[in-house]
Write a structure and sequence with these properties.
heterodimer, A: mainly alpha, Arc Repressor Mutant, subunit A, 2 domains, 7 helices, B: alpha+beta, 13-stranded mixed β-sheet, about 30% strand
Chain lengths: ~180, ~350
């Protein structure tokens, strides 16, 4: 991604970084108990400000914003770790061991995390129906049997989940174009 | 069919955002069409909806974007493990929220029982199932008529034959037929299409029913056309091809010999554009096949097996800087290769 920033914002960001990076790093390290993750997330928080510039009117306002962002980033990280762990457990439980490269692991975990983020706010049944439909390519009838609902209901779940994801995507696109 | 180009254009310039209602309609269409279990009528309605306005196409583009998110897990060998891991995580969270029960039976091995990526393509366009001779999409077949005339039926084609004592008639209902007539000085051989009739004055020619037009190429002898509306007649000589509607005949141009080899199951590309090749290939395949504008003009050479369109796509992918994206089994687009992949 190439980002063109106007000069004043570049300076503003520099000030923000000098004033708050150390504080944010300490906050994250306490929360995560891990210096490497804390450094990564502190970095991510500032990348966010770089990608989506915003101005702050006070020192406290800036810290309130950064700690909210940090909370979100921590939650994302934990969710990602959960996915990673579940993935490795699932593989370990498989009868035949298939060798996978680190890249292959990373790419599945990345894809699953994205899907998980997209579907997070959906009700369980709709999310499950969607995953069965999209990942496993199950028909409405097959999903219906698994979830013990009608075929019609499955179609509704799939449409609802798709709409949910599309709405998130549209929102994201609009936000990205706004600045 | 509408053009993928306009869809891609619409997606690139996010000038306006589809309304919530339109997104909802697109999502409902997706849920209905996703495994190709929709009826022909429903598919036609979807096409009409898509054609209506750019907002609809843009909304459908979002369906594509979301579908693509699932590409890497869906096409990989680990999709079942991936789905299980996903369910496991969701189940844990639900447990944490003490909302047990909704996932009973799902979190464990239930999903592992599912095997295989099954799909049925969208039903093809209306076929004359009751015709005397017909081929399915992707099928090329030879038949011998009662008078020993040989006909080769191209993909998704249908003809009725009536061999009488005084005249031999072939009615082309859909698709394309290559005819090698058996010589018979006492009985005329006539092919009828929606736009008119063609009387064989020689032995070998191909007739193709297009949308509101008939294409005729004469490889041996000559063929006399008579237009349905005006009754106007014209003889097309050997080595020429024309297209005619119910009241107009185009000027004859030299017959494209490379087209003739379809009867042998080969699509011969002699320096044609990728868009032209794909337009031809799409006739042998169910579902949508689109080309992004930035690769549409790439030049293509060589012979391609018509009986295996997916193999052709793989062959093209190997030699051209393109990526074949399968958003849905029946929705395939050819795009520029992403750098580094």
């Amino acid at each position: 991604m190439r980002i063109t920033l106007n000069k004043p914002y570049q300076q503003e960001l520099h000030v923000l970084y000098t004033d708050h990076h150390g504080w944010l790093y300490t906050l994250l390290r306490r929360r995560l108990g891990n210096t490497a993750d804390a450094a990564d997330l502190a970095h991510d928080a500032f990348v966010r400000l770089l990608v989506r510039p915003r101005s702050f009117d006070s020192f406290d306002g800036t810290r309130a914003y950064l700690s909210t962002v940090a909370r979100g980033l921590c939650a994302d990280l934990w969710r990602r770790r959960e996915i990673e762990q579940a993935w490795l457990e699932t593989l370990a439980a498989q009868p035949e061991a298939v060798a996978r490269s680190a890249e292959e692991h990373a790419s599945v975990i990345q894809a699953l995390s994205e899907i998980d983020t997209m579907l997070r706010k959906l009700p369980e049944k709709a999310a499950n129906a969607f995953v069965m439909a999209m990942v496993l390519g199950m028909t409405d009838k097959e999903v219906a049997r698994q979830l013990d609902v009608s075929d019609r209901m499955v179609r509704k779940y799939v449409a609802r989940a798709m709409l949910h994801c599309m709405t998130l995507e549209v929102g994201h696109t609009v936000n990205c174009n706004a600045w | 069919m509408y053009e993928i180009d306009s869809l891609l254009d619409a997606s690139r310039t996010h000038k306006s955002t589809p309304s919530h209602e339109t997104l909802q309609t697109a999502a409902e269409w997706f849920a209905l069409l996703r495994l190709g279990n929709a009826t022909e009528q429903e598919c036609a309605e979807w096409n009409v909806w898509l054609d209506q306005c750019s907002e609809h196409r843009e909304a459908w583009h979002y369906v594509e974007i979301i579908s693509q998110r699932f590409d890497s897990v869906q096409s990989g060998p680990d999709r079942q493990a991936a789905a299980s891991a996903f369910q496991k995580v969701r189940a844990k969270r639900v447990t944490r929220r003490q909302a047990l029960g909704s996932l009973a039976g799902l979190a464990g091995g239930g999903l592992l029982a599912w095997l295989g990526w099954r799909h049925t393509p969208l039903p093809g366009r209306a076929m004359a199932w009751s015709a005397d001779y017909r081929t399915a999409t992707g099928e090329i077949r030879d038949f011998t008529l009662a008078d020993s005339t040989h006909i080769g039926l191209n993909t998704a084609s249908a003809v009725n034959a009536s061999i009488q004592a005084d005249v031999r008639r072939l009615h082309l209902i859909a698709g394309e037929v290559l005819i090698r007539t058996a010589s018979d000085p006492h009985r005329a051989f006539v092919v009828d299409t929606h736009e008119g009739s063609m009387q064989a004055l020689g032995t070998r020619f191909t007739v193709r029913q297009e949308e509101n037009a008939t294409f005729l190429a004469v490889y041996e002898g000559a063929v006399k056309i008579r237009l349905a509306d005006t009754g106007e007649g014209r003889v097309v000589e050997v080595g020429h091809q024309v297209t005619f509607t119910r009241d107009t005949i185009s000027a004859p141009v030299p017959a494209d010999r490379s087209r003739e080899v379809w009867a042998n199951g080969i699509l011969l590309a002699e320096d044609i554009s990728l868009a032209e090749l794909v337009r031809e290939l799409a006739r042998y395949r169910s579902g949508h096949l689109g080309v992004a504008p930035e690769v549409a003009e790439l030049r293509v050479l060589g012979g391609y097996p018509l009986h295996d369109p997916d193999k052709v796509l793989a062959m093209l992918e190997a030699v051209l800087p393109i990526t074949v994206r399968r958003t849905l089994p029946w929705w395939v687009t050819i795009e520029a290769e992403t750098p580094g992949s």
